[in-house]
Amino acid sequence: MVSTIASPAPASSARPSKTVKFVSLAIATVFGIGYVPVAPGTFGSIAGLLLWMVLPASTVVQAAAIVALLVVGSLAGNVAEHHFGRTDPRQVIIDEVMGMLITLFLNPVASKGAFVGFLFFRATDVIKPYPANRLERLPGGIGVMADDAMAAIYANLALRISIWSSSHLVIGSFN
Fold first, then answer.
1. Residue 4 main-chain phi, psi, to 5 deg
2. How many domains does the chain have?
3. 24 domain-assigned
4. pLDDT for the residue 16
């Protein structure tokens, strides 16, 4: 869902400084990756997969990273929406990074399973099943982040079911 922002921020002290805007756009676009012309969300998801690979396999560390990305991404998303002049601009991919961490959170997978999680997340992020499609209507950066968080919860559950079924139905392992 792409729409323009109804009323841009007034020219006042509420405008972010050039430094805050630069840092916010760097975060929102994951250091410019969001500017790729084709499938920026897929590249954002790959960045999230790479971040997951370098994070310690600690529940506390991964949960803290998810919360930090949600908060920082929401703030950066606010600035980015005003900069690009529309809600949830395609260049903003910090939500995909967070989405991949949520997808893989507490799932016992190695690279093969992480790739399956990546596919599940991309599918749910594109399809946006209810209520993810409603959450993207939330205002500002929280709307940017919330729909991907919900899509990632669905992907996490799909990955869990796949792991369970592969171990119980002898299809193969995701490790």
1. -85, 155
2. 1
3. no
4. 82
